[in-house]
Design a protein that fits this description.
Layout: E1 2-6, H1 13-24, E2 27-30, H2 31-44, H3 53-62, E3 65-68, E4 73-76, E5 79-80, H4 88-97, H5 101-122, E6 125-129, H6 132-136, E7 142-147, H7 150-163, H8 170-186, E8 199-202, H9 208-229
Parallel strand pairs: 1-6, 1-7, 2-6, 7-8
Antiparallel strand pairs: 3-4, 4-5
Bound molecules: 2'-deoxycytidine-5'-monophosphate.
Residues 9, 31-32, 35-36, 91, 94-95, 98, 129-131, 180, 184 line the site of 2'-deoxycytidine-5'-monophosphate.
Length: 230
């Protein structure tokens, strides 16, 4: 079973997807981490858009990205980059480089492979991102689109950054999300949107456990339907 969870930054995708994967014993795949790894290496090499588009595509093609610890850590060859890829600068540049169709083709293939391996090993995979239900796995059995009010999303992001010692305020967090939303929703290739058959879950004011329970209910319904058809 593939469970596709999409939504804007700060909607609660990572927390939810991890918890759903744990609940069912499935593999967890954080697809944003892979785009972030490409952005990190491109930034470290001083590459910029639009001038260095060809070099950034080459980085995506040649980068030895590995996702370990059931999706909890991201590696580039022997380097654990799990913390480095979470900075606000990397987040912004990631949303720029992820508009490049050639980068997406390479990364989507890797995501499909990782998810299939996880499915084979654990019986299912939970993927979170922006285009999982529309592009990466349009045939996913379960499609969830998470939403939350912009203020709620910015507050969550602010808390995350403060925990990491970043000095940002709420206005900066709101601006960061607004700029990313605009690019993620407005891009030509694989824009962020819900699939027609997605279940939309608003995460404002409800606990992670409640969100997980709503998703588990959708999964149970789908499994029942599948069994009834056999
Ligand atoms: O989920 P995240 O915040 O780690 O994602 C970082 C950026 O990566 C996001 O702004 C857009 C891009 N992304 C994408 O284009 N497609 C995905 N499936 C996941 C992330």
């Amino acid at each position: 079973m593939i469970i596709a969870i999409d939504g804007p930054a700060g909607a609660g995708k990572s927390t939810t997807a991890r918890a759903v994967a744990k609940y069912f014993g499935f593999a967890y795949v954080d697809t944003g981490a892979m785009y972030r790894a490409v952005a990190l290496v491109a930034l470290e090499a001083g590459l910029k858009l639009p001038d260095d588009e060809a070099s950034i595509i080459e980085v995506a093609r040649s980068l030895p990205i590995a996702i370990r610890d059931n999706g909890q850590s991201t590696w580039i060859g022997p380097r654990n980059v799990s913390t480095l890829i979470r900075s606000p600068e990397v987040a912004q540049f990631t949303s720029q480089i992820s508009t490049l169709p050639e980068v997406r083709v390479v990364i989507v293939e890797k995501q499909q492979q990782i998810a299939r391996d996880g499915e084979a090993e654990c019986g299912g995979a939970v993927l979170e991102g922006r285009d999982i239900q529309t592009v990466v796995f349009p045939e996913a059995e379960v499609k969830i689109f998470l939403t939350a009010d912009p203020r709620t999303r910015a507050s969550r992001r602010l808390i995350e950054w403060q925990h990491k010692g970043e000095s940002v305020d709420l206005a900066a967090a709101e601006e960061e999300l607004r700029a990313r939303d605009e690019r993620d929703i407005g891009r030509d290739t694989s824009p962020l949107r819900a699939a027609e058959d997605a279940v939309v879950v608003a995460t404002d004011g409800i606990s992670c456990d409640e969100v997980v329970e709503q998703i588990a209910q959708v999964v149970r319904e789908k499994t029942k339907i599948k069994k009834a058809k056999i």
